[in-house]
Design a protein that fits this description.
Helix content: over 70%
Order of helices and strands: HHHHHHHHHHHHH
Distance between the termini: 21 Å
Number of strands: 0
Number of helices: 13
Shape: globular
Strand content: under 5%
Oligomer: single chain
Low-confidence stretches: 313-337
Radius of gyration: 23 Å
Largest sheet: none
Length: 337
Amino acid sequence: MWDFDLTRAIKLMGRTSPFILLRLLVYVGIALGYILVTGIGAGIGYGVTSIGDGDGGGAAIGGLLGFGLVSGVLYWAREYLLYLIKAGHIAVLVELLQGQELPAGRSQIEHGQQVVKARFKEASILFGVDQLIKGILRMLNRLVMSISRIIPIPGLDKVAGAVNAVINTSLTYVDEVMLAYNIKTSSDNPWQSSKDALILYAQNYQALLKNAVFLMVFMYAAAFVIFLLILLPVAAIAALLPGSVGVWTFVSAALLAWSLKAALLEPLAVTAMMDVYFKTIEGQTPNPEWDEKLSSASDKFRELSQKATSYVSDSFSTAGTTPSATPDVTTPPNSPS
């Protein structure tokens, strides 16, 4: 079955309660912002199209415009959400997974953010690393994670497209584990350590992917239960409002369920996946064969390699030393399948 320990992950999450509260404030605030601005847009659309003999049919258009406005703002803010919240939380979780105690006299959030800033000098670097990793993971799924190799069942190829879509969704938690590896190795070169993390993932893809899929199924099942629990009170509130809110009742409940998933369930899944990943790769080094295999298959992986090389060259030319991104390990790596 799976190799992660949800009980341990929940306990670790409890020890990062300041970040959990921050995530709740941010993501629930985003959901409420969606609901508020969408409602205002719908109200304006209704009012404008109700003038004279209008039937108020512009409410839906106004609501969609309001929804799009909030989405646009979040699109531009997404790298800072990653830099200041997700990455800081991961930094603290990495230290706890290694049995370290957080420094006294400093807030947990401040400490996590300082660790991230020490590894990624600018938010744009972290965001660029994260986007490259996501693209490479999708390629890796197509290259070596054929569902027929993972679960050899006759006739499975007929549903392989749908199953591979599920696998791609499960990789949502894996890209943040690559960030955790960056922080754990204390690398001065985030591009090189990301490359190493991806190669180590590829070397162990069957065990790691299996756990990622189990975690995804668990998280989405839990999110659906949360949605059902939220839907009833949201529908009760909607019933008190004038007019018919129709589909917006479900949209509002879905947004609130998403916010709780992002604030509570996603960091739980990432914590469990981090634990499995670090245990699985313990004692391994990146296999050059996998480096060549990924380089020949992915433009994005080659881009990552080029950025790693140029980053080292820049550091060497200015500091006179080449930073190391590979942890001190001794056991030979697994060979590719």
